[in-house]
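In this section we walk through a basic example: taking a raw amino acid sequence and producing a predicted 3D structure, encoded as C-alpha coordinates. The instruction is simple. Fold the sequence below.
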Amino acid sequence: AAFHSLVGLAAVGTAVGDYAAFLSEPGVHAMDGVRSAGILLATFIGGVTATGSLVAFAKLNGNLSSASLQLPGRDQLNLGMGLGSLGAGGAFL
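The resulting C-alpha coordinate sequence is shown next.
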Protein backbone atom coordinates (compact mmCIF):
# COMPACT_ATOMS: atom_id res chain seq x y z
CA ALA A 1 0.00 0.00 0.00
CA ALA A 2 2.87 2.38 0.74
CA PHE A 3 4.42 1.81 -2.68
CA HIS A 4 1.04 2.25 -4.36
CA SER A 5 0.95 5.82 -3.03
CA LEU A 6 4.01 6.49 -5.20
CA VAL A 7 1.87 5.77 -8.26
CA GLY A 8 -0.51 8.55 -7.22
CA LEU A 9 2.35 10.91 -6.48
CA ALA A 10 3.88 10.12 -9.88
CA ALA A 11 0.60 11.03 -11.59
CA VAL A 12 0.43 14.31 -9.70
CA GLY A 13 4.08 15.06 -10.43
CA THR A 14 3.64 14.33 -14.12
CA ALA A 15 0.62 16.63 -14.32
CA VAL A 16 2.43 19.42 -12.48
CA GLY A 17 5.42 19.00 -14.79
CA ASP A 18 3.19 19.11 -17.87
CA TYR A 19 1.56 22.32 -16.69
CA ALA A 20 4.94 23.82 -15.79
CA ALA A 21 6.19 23.04 -19.31
CA PHE A 22 3.22 24.91 -20.73
CA LEU A 23 3.82 27.90 -18.45
CA SER A 24 7.51 28.08 -19.35
CA GLU A 25 6.86 28.27 -23.10
CA PRO A 26 3.17 28.86 -23.88
CA GLY A 27 3.90 29.52 -27.56
CA VAL A 28 5.57 26.13 -28.00
CA HIS A 29 3.22 23.96 -25.92
CA ALA A 30 -0.46 24.16 -26.82
CA MET A 31 -2.98 24.01 -23.99
CA ASP A 32 -6.15 22.57 -25.49
CA GLY A 33 -9.12 21.05 -23.72
CA VAL A 34 -7.77 17.50 -23.85
CA ARG A 35 -4.47 18.49 -22.26
CA SER A 36 -6.22 20.58 -19.60
CA ALA A 37 -8.60 17.73 -18.78
CA GLY A 38 -5.69 15.29 -18.60
CA ILE A 39 -3.83 17.54 -16.17
CA LEU A 40 -6.94 18.01 -14.06
CA LEU A 41 -7.80 14.29 -13.92
CA ALA A 42 -4.22 13.18 -13.28
CA THR A 43 -3.91 15.63 -10.41
CA PHE A 44 -7.27 14.74 -8.85
CA ILE A 45 -7.11 10.96 -9.27
CA GLY A 46 -3.42 10.81 -8.36
CA GLY A 47 -4.02 12.83 -5.20
CA VAL A 48 -6.92 10.63 -4.13
CA THR A 49 -4.90 7.48 -4.90
CA ALA A 50 -1.90 8.67 -2.89
CA THR A 51 -4.02 9.70 0.07
CA GLY A 52 -6.04 6.48 0.11
CA SER A 53 -2.92 4.35 -0.19
CA LEU A 54 -1.23 6.12 2.71
CA VAL A 55 -4.31 5.64 4.90
CA ALA A 56 -4.46 1.96 3.89
CA PHE A 57 -0.78 1.53 4.73
CA ALA A 58 -1.25 3.19 8.12
CA LYS A 59 -4.17 0.87 8.91
CA LEU A 60 -2.32 -2.25 7.76
CA ASN A 61 0.78 -1.21 9.70
CA GLY A 62 -1.24 -0.61 12.87
CA ASN A 63 -0.61 3.13 13.04
CA LEU A 64 -4.34 3.81 12.59
CA SER A 65 -7.28 1.82 13.86
CA SER A 66 -8.86 -0.40 11.24
CA ALA A 67 -12.29 0.92 12.21
CA SER A 68 -13.81 3.49 9.91
CA LEU A 69 -13.09 7.10 10.81
CA GLN A 70 -16.20 8.71 12.29
CA LEU A 71 -15.76 12.46 11.94
CA PRO A 72 -18.67 14.64 13.02
CA GLY A 73 -20.13 16.25 9.91
CA ARG A 74 -18.08 14.01 7.59
CA ASP A 75 -20.80 13.96 4.92
CA GLN A 76 -20.87 17.74 4.84
CA LEU A 77 -17.05 17.82 4.70
CA ASN A 78 -17.04 15.36 1.79
CA LEU A 79 -19.71 17.32 -0.03
CA GLY A 80 -17.84 20.59 0.50
CA MET A 81 -14.54 19.13 -0.68
CA GLY A 82 -16.21 17.53 -3.70
CA LEU A 83 -17.91 20.75 -4.70
CA GLY A 84 -14.69 22.68 -4.12
CA SER A 85 -12.81 20.25 -6.37
CA LEU A 86 -15.46 20.56 -9.08
CA GLY A 87 -15.39 24.36 -8.83
CA ALA A 88 -11.60 24.52 -8.99
CA GLY A 89 -11.58 22.07 -11.90
CA GLY A 90 -14.19 24.12 -13.73
CA ALA A 91 -12.16 27.29 -13.20
CA PHE A 92 -9.02 25.54 -14.49
CA LEU A 93 -10.72 24.25 -17.62
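Looking at the output, two observations stand out. The CA atoms of residues 55 and 61 lie 10 Å apart. The two ends are 32 Å apart (CA to CA). In the next section we compare this with other chains.
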